[in-house]
Amino acid sequence: MRDDLRTLPKIELHCHLDGSLDPEFVRYTLEQQGESVPLPKLQELLQAPENCASLAEYLQRFQLPIRCMDTPQQVRRSAYTFLRSLKEDGVRYAEVRFSPALLENSSLTARQAVEEVLSGLDAARRESGVEYGVILCAMRHHTQEKNEEMFRLAREYLGQGVCGVDLAGDEAARPNGEFFPLFEQAYRLGLPYTIHAGECGSAQSVADALEMGARRIGHGIAMEKDPSLQKRCAQLRVGVEMCPVSNLQTKAVARLENYPIRKFLSNGVLVTINTDNRTVSGTSLTREYGLLAEQFAFTMEELKRLSRNAVECSFASEELKEQLLREL
């Protein structure tokens, strides 16, 4: 069945670029910077350990990738190699997200970062046929002014490769309730948005994201405690971007057998399956779908339903959605 899962057309809606860099790209970039790191050590630096204790520890694995996105050329190459790699995973459309502000330095502005990512992705799209959209992330630890600046940048490129915005970072340290004014601006700018919520045990975080008008919820695990929230998501047709392997690593859920995907689906939630961070989590959509088939007896038709859900709640154009649904 694994070969069938690999060739199954898939849609990826929740994937961080800096958490999904090709290890060979990272090794090459480090060598260009005069640093040689053996592959086993590189894997240790890039990939979250199996006994990862929390989301905060998981996020430490992003330090090295960001070092390797230090120049316009590196940013462009990182985006190019990322999208090219998705073809062998059967991905037909991916929404990849990153924070331009995290990449700013003396040789790279946030605007340049956006343009280089779009350039790399477009070159890879022409070669691989994998379609894409870009989600720009506001960061919880950044100031309101910095995040508003990023949203204005997203508005400039909306429809030109950028398809929406997000709020990312340590949810436990800075909960969603602090960000209502920020998403009032996103709404005024006409930006589609998804919000990380419910990854750190707080159902209130999901409720706040819905109140802020999120069209999708990143992770959403904590609303397992609140069936009324699940039903509200279902009624609003708000997509929930579930990431099984990552959710286990960050301790959003203690054991795979407790994963609430069947519960969410039975309550009508528009569930999608994603990788979150392909390199940090050591995963792919083929692996994620395989876990669902092995642990929860998902049939091929049920897995295809998850891809159709992803098309429905994607930020793609209606024309592209119709094309993807024909392929699925």
Features:
globular; 4-stranded parallel beta sheet; 328 residues; alpha/beta; TIM Barrel
How would you characterize this protein structure?
- The protein has about 325 residues and is α/β, with parallel strands linked by helices.
- The protein has one domain: TIM Barrel (Alpha-Beta Barrel), CATH 3.20.20.140.
- The chain has 17 helices and 8 strands.
- The strands form 2 sheets. Strands 1-2-3-4 form a 4-stranded parallel beta sheet. Strands 5-6-7-8 form a 4-stranded parallel beta sheet.
- Helix 9 links the parallel strand 3 and strand 4.
- Helix 6 runs parallel beside helix 8 and helix 9 packs parallel to helix 10.
- The longest helix is centred in the middle third of the chain and has 19 residues.
- The two termini are about 20 Å apart.
- The model has no long low-confidence stretch (mean pLDDT about 95).
